[in-house]
Amino acid sequence: MASGATVSQQLIDALYRARRDGAEPVSAANAEFDQDTALRVQLGVLDRFVKAGDALGGWKAALSSGTSRDMMGKDFRPFGYVLRSKIFRSGDRVSLRQMYQCRIEPELCVIMKAPLKGSVTAAEARRAVGAIAPAFEINDIRTRNEWGRPLLLADGLAQWGIVVGPHAPVRDGLQNTTVKFFTDDKLLATETPGELMDDPFLSLARMCGVLDRFGFGLEPGQPIITGAFCRSPVNGPGTFRAEFSGIGDVSITFEP
Question: CA torsion sign, 111 to 206 to 47 to 26?
Fold first, then answer.
């Protein structure tokens, strides 16, 4: 039987290839590991990308809204890395050939102005943020269900990239923002999460505690996405746009 270290390295290799190539989803039936091991695998995949010439660009604070909130434990807000090469500006175009199964989520993004590390409060997290921005998270579903939730953690919670719109001033009550979500000017959803979403600064603080266990923190200039307002599959070429009340708009066009 393969050792745990061997299984982890094999999984790092498989997840790296799946994300790099937009390949078939990874399956890891009959393997078992805990959340911390899954997050170490995720950071191992990040290390592969860094060694190949990419860089860490930012993070996602995960499991903070909607039906995924607390899915892996009360107040557990794990991280997902964002590659620098996969940070897009509003209005950019992205090829669907880079992904296996694309999904898009309107999210708020916070832009760090100061480092943030270790055990911090929501108030301390807010003071470290320099701006907020309307954003999208682009997901790519690269894993099968046999391994369940730890595999999702290992794969960065399906993170593929983010789209960041114009910066706006920091303010409170962000979970009460209303989003109007469009595809090719057709309204898909109007959502105001309210109590169904963490205060983004609280999510930031909780994620910092998890990152600290692995020797990481947040750095100035990094964009951090903080939770989905709603979501949609991307079934083909088209433009998605989201209007965030009092903050601004963001858009992305998917090409074949």
Answer: negative
